[in-house]
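Hello Y.,

Per our agreement to keep a running log of every chain we model this quarter, I'm adding this entry. I've kept the format consistent with earlier entries: sequence first, then predicted structure.
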Amino acid sequence: MLLVLSEEYKEHLAFLPQVDPAVVFEFGRIAVEFLKRGINSKVYDGAARKLGFPITTVQHGVEGLMFLFTESSKLMITDIDFKDSVMVLGFSTELNEILLQILCFQLYVENQTTIRSTLTQLAPSLPSYHNLEWRLDVQLGSRSMRHQVVPVVTMLLNLTMGTSENRRCCLQTNPSTLLHLIAVLEAALASMKNNHARRILRNIK
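Predicted structure for the entry above:
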């Protein structure tokens, strides 16, 4: 699988052919450091003075490399796919080899586990299904109306919050609304089988 780079990130990385390999390596080192500890805007200023580039150029270059590392870790792509992905940027063969040998795999491969661990920690903690209990109540009459049928479905939804903590939600609805809800959920499950949804799932695993 190849990385898909937007025009914005391609523009951010377009200056790399104009700089020395040591500068490219320094940008990569900063990118990995930011992935570990978070972005520090003061580093941009110091790197810009040290390397002799505008702050915006340094920032865009680091953000472009951070995107490469992050997406590569998400997809767990092979070295061949990584090399092919970099080549589509239109760099020279020499620069592709520099990125492959000096930057990409000295920094990306060595820090792949750290990057994936960081991405996992940043992922939102969402509740997951644990159990469902339900009951159907039917009111057949009342003092004002002796002959009526009013069905009500009562559901007790048990959710797991990612730890030992559980959450219970009590829901009530009528059968027609419940059937509509089921139809909507079935349509959502069916949409997960198309190619676009599968591509998104591969990116977020």
